[in-house]
Known about the structure:
Distance between the termini of chain A: 65 Å
Strand content of chain B: under 5%
Largest interface: A-B, 34 and 44 residues
Strand order of the largest sheet of chain B: 1-2
Oligomer: heterodimer
Radius of gyration of chain B: 33 Å
Shape of chain A: elongated
Order of helices and strands of chain B: HHEHHHHHHHEHHHHHHHEEHHHHHH
CATH architecture of the largest domain in chain A: 3-layer Sandwich
Low-confidence stretches of chain B: none
CATH topology of the largest domain in chain A: Rieske Iron-sulfur Protein
CATH superfamily of the largest domain in chain B: Cytochrome Bc1 Complex, Chain C
Number of domains of chain A: 2
CATH superfamily of the largest domain in chain A: Rieske [2Fe-2S] iron-sulphur domain
Number of helices of chain A: 2
Structural class of chain A: alpha+beta
Mean pLDDT of chain B: 90
Helix content of chain A: 10-25%
Radius of gyration of chain A: 28 Å
Structural class of chain B: mainly alpha
CATH architecture of the largest domain in chain B: Up-down Bundle
CATH class of the largest domain in chain A: Mainly Beta
Mean pLDDT of chain A: 88
CATH topology of the largest domain in chain B: Cytochrome Bc1 Complex, Chain C
Number of strands of chain B: 4
Amino acid sequence: MTSGEANRVTRRSFIGWFTLLLGAIPAIGATAVGAVSIVGSVFRRAANGAQRFARVGVVREFKMGSYRRVELCGGGADAWRRDAARVEGAAYVRLESGGSFTAFSTRCPHLGCEVAIDDAGRAFRCPCHGSEFDASGKRKRDSAGKIIGPAPRDLDPLAVRIASTGEASQNGSPPQQVVEVEVATFQTGTSSRKRI
Amino acid sequence: MGSAPESTWRRLVRGLDERTGLIAGIRSFADSPVPGGARWRYVFGSALLSSFVTQIVTGVFLAFHFSPTLNDAWGSIVYLEEKVALGRELRALHHWGANVMVGVMILHFAQVVLAGAYKRPRELNWIIGLAAGGLVLMLALTGYLLPLDERGYYATQVALNITASVPGVGPSAVSILQGGARFGVESMSRFYTLHAMVLPGALALLVVLHVVFVHRLKVTAPFSAAATNEPFWPRQAFRDALAMSAAFALTVVLALAVGTPLLAPADPARAFDARPEWYFLPLFELLKLLEGDLLLVGTVVLPGVAALALVLLPWLDRAPTVATRSRLRVIIPVFFGLAIAASLGAKAALDDANSPEYQRRMSDAHRAAERARALAKQGGIPPSGPTHLYENDPVAHGERLFLRHCRDCHAIAGDGGRSAPDLAGYRSPKWYREFFRDPNTTKYYGHEESVSKGAMKSIEKLGDEKLVALAAFFARGAEMRGVDEGTAKRGETVWKGESCMELCHTFSGAANPSGNVPDLKGHGSRGWLRGFLVAPGDARFFGKRNRMPSFRDKLSSAERDAVIEFVATLHEK
């Protein structure tokens, strides 16, 4: 091969690649913009990071010892929507003897099914894969000391706070003490507890 | 591993080719003979194909973000533009890509007519091309609606009404298109399905057929071209690739430089001057020219005749060759038609550009759009839909209520009814000053049906200095900000000094003994207006002379407050 022929081949292959590139630019450009737009959601989720609470009832509605299921309406934004009535989850809540409250997320830490509560309101069982939890949210063990079911960790506790409604009612009775439960979701399937 | 990658790659390609015939397929396109050699005039088809591919790509990505429902469509677009990385750019590429695609399509069409490429044996491919063109226009029409802003909504209403005007099948066609007699939740699903699935699917099918036939029948060389052929690769391929990139570059430039319009959310209760995209403007203008019973001529007859003539073009053209000179009888009418369409479109655009009325309404619409977008960003969109956004904003809510309940009687700067005072400038010192000069002009109480025509006489004889002070005094009483305190104080002195005025008007905040003349304490202030809207016929206001309806039952107290907040902004007008 002479050097002139080699040059011509190189030039031809350069123009060939350049032509392919020119032809592909529209599709590549459009795909790149679109891909960035959908991948961006991975980085956007931290925006709603502030701790939020949902009002679930007045203090005296809660009994000591047995759990009550409440729905959590946190009024949080969902992308472009803001819906004060949106239910974002549920919690099991009970009053403790010291006047404090305990609350657990109703989601099983295994794969997120809603755990069921027994009739006495004192123990939980996941209907999906059979994990069982006691009244303090701990995983139950069988007689051999082995954990029952596949859940990798105990039920996820939610923060509870007592707030005052601030306004006296019409007949002059003092402001109500209300129970507010944290609205939170946790990564399922992991032994460590991680908020998402 | 020095030479391994290349040979692995080659082995892979060879293996793939063995199983698929890939190389042979590519080669058959690359070696496809271009009659008369590579030419720039052959590039439009490829550029159009590339535009279509780009639209599919951007369209599929948009579908990841878009929520095609009445209550969410507009909000999902705002969210896309405000919160999604490159979301604004993605939408702009799709919007301007559609415009560029229609533009390239017109060029492609013109080139095919000029070249005589519709002639035997390409008649079928010509008709396939025309059908594909029709689908592109339908894609544009259905896509226009989807953001569900005022522009898309009203333009689509017009298109649907035109369709409904077609005798016989019209109303049924509209009912099928929008899923019922009236536009509603189902309409969005149907337009979205048409725009994102049915039409692009059908178009892709026609485009594949079109390209296969071009591959089989080759392009049409100019009559004078040498009878030699040249393979598609590389010289024609280079020209085509450059045209594809150029069309995309134009799209990118338009997308970045102009941006994509998104007006306020569609609200059937608001007026809007519907205008279609530029490529439908000729039809729009035609409809302005053909009134009444002639509507069908513009919507059905003329477009139908034009479409039929185009379909029959291969048979209308009896010329034995593609020589331009022998086909002037076909070329001239087609280009004459294009020129007429262009002039009609240009006239429509110029009419709007030169109409202060239209420009004013458009700038109002743009202001409304900005406010709606700001509200959406700030508080999100209620589940009841974006038209309820305004309820978070008293002024915007008040404006909507004003338009619905007040404008039939009260105009703002001439826009509205004429039986009650025009409220432009209301409660400003200037408004009061002009009122003192002549309360009985049509801007104030000069209308025939007015509350108190002639009841009050001009007080111009007091002289400008006193009246300016008096105007400032009342403007301050009406809670206007920025009124000069000194002037207002002097006005108060004027008021107290001119006891003649107290003979008619009181300044107590209570009912006037005569019962027919408004008490002026706080006239025009929020508190005064609150009472006035509830009971304008009260002795404290116009008494027996009153002609203004009470809004006690028509509006809630929050709605009345919103109207008052809006009226409080009118001093700027």
